[in-house]
Amino acid sequence: MPAARPDFDSSAFRSALGRFATGVTIVASLGDDGRPFGLTVSSFNSVSLEPPLVLWSLSLASGSFEALARSSHYTVSVLAADQLELAKRFAARGADRFAGVRWRPSARGLPIIEDCAAWFECYNRSRYAEGDHAIFVGEVERCAHTQAMPLVFHAGDFDLTPRDGRRRSA
Questions:
Q1: What SUPFAM superfamilies does the record tag this protein with (predicted)?
Q2: How far apart are CA 170 and CA 157, in angstroms?
Q3: How far, in Å, CA of 26 to CA of 105, rounded?
């Protein structure tokens, strides 16, 4: 039996999805010209411990889609709570997102954002087109983490909850 037609619109769906808090990452690689490129991604998740697999999704219409699909490897930098401006910068269109950004090369020379909460260097293992997005599955070759608190996205905004528990909006 096929799925029933949704009884909601895309706005209601987006609002419901927003109730699930996510971390904020920058997925990055090197272009054909050897220059780093990347974008903000909040659809990051673990898949498997053995082998170590992660996933994230990207709109098929994204300007970075073809370059990431061609990349054999990429990094995922989990942003720290104090890296909100980087999240916004890598979500914006048109600018050289890496201009002036502090990053260091991974073992493969791929960009890892400095002072991030965690990072993963991945082999671009597989990709599945589903709806208007593609799901990328990465096999993690290297990873590390710090004690930094992660940046969180929730209910359509960045969750800037200080230690006192009172939420501030970005």
A1: FMN-binding split barrel (SSF50475)
A2: 7
A3: 14
The predicted-structure confidence for 79-91, as pLDDT tens digits, reads as follows 999 999 999 999 9
CA distance 147 to 116: 10
For 107, the 3-state DSSP assignment is coil
* Average pLDDT for the chain: 91
In this predicted structure, the answer to whether residue 97 has a pLDDT above a threshold of 70 is: yes
**Each residue's pLDDT tens digit, 113-142:** 999 999 999 999 999 999 999 999 999 999
Going by the DSSP 8-state scheme, the letter that residue 127 receives in this structure is E
β-sheet with 157-160: strand ranges across = 22-23, 152-154, 157-160, 168-169
* 127 contacts 135 by C-beta, under 8 angstroms: yes
pLDDT at residue 94 is higher than 80? no
Q: What are the residue ranges of helices labelled H in the chain? A: 10-17, 65-70, 84-91
In which element (H, E) is residue 134 found? strand 133-145
DSSP state of 78: E
